[in-house]
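Reply to dn_fold:

You asked what the input looked like. This is it:
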Amino acid sequence: MTATQGRPATASPRRLNRNLLVGIAFASTVFAAVMLLPFVLPAHTEPALGSVLAAPSTAHPLGTDQLGRDVLARVLSAMRLDLGVATVALVGPLIVGSALGAAAAWYGGWLDQAVGVLSDVVQAFPYYLLIIVLVFFLGPGMGSIFVAVAVVAWVSYARILRSEVQAQLHRDYVAAARGAGLSGRRVLLRHVLPNCFQQPLAYYATDVVVVVIGTATLSYLGLGIAPPTPELGSMIADGQQFIGSRPLLSVAPGLAVVVIGIAFALLGQGLTEQVDDR
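and this is what came back:
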């Protein structure tokens, strides 16, 4: 018997589900817009005191802010920044959490108990509250956001991988690999983990939304990325004083957060459904 016996038979290629197709299309459109449009549009991101609080026009589709800067250009730049922060900040938690979860499930014993206790301690605190407290003590800035997300977000990936690896432990191909004399580490890395990473990657897409909202919240509270760098949360806060005369100053970045949330929520839901149907 070879080490691959006992695996589910290779199925014919399956169609992507509707939510996944819509999510891919929506997320791809958002990525294309935030990556390309700031270079295509006339990005009036520098202060222009001659066009302060201008109404929407051909030159400025969403108007200008209190310093004469183009609102659309700043919103697109802020979306690019927030998406970049979220996707990069989650790489560490994905790797560390997955490694801890896989090791806990595979080796069990005191390691499994230690990871479980540490996970329970982190999850005992509300997600956003813990991030806000950490950033408050670390100080405002992108580096503090990365550290806070790393401290909090690894737990979900650890629990997902632990569950996925435990589901594989009693499969025939694992017993065959062990019977062939392969080391436990090789069985885990070469045979088990490749069958377990679909679910964490699906969750990663949804987690991007969580971090984008968290980053915007921190900047709204003055704890995130400092002006004049365009950031959605700080733009919402800055525009509040003009909500009566120029509501787009706050509404536009707020809608940008909603658009990102819908796009990546659909992508994450579609990926999860695709994995569950495997």
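The chain is about 70% helix and 0% strand.
Hope that clears it up.
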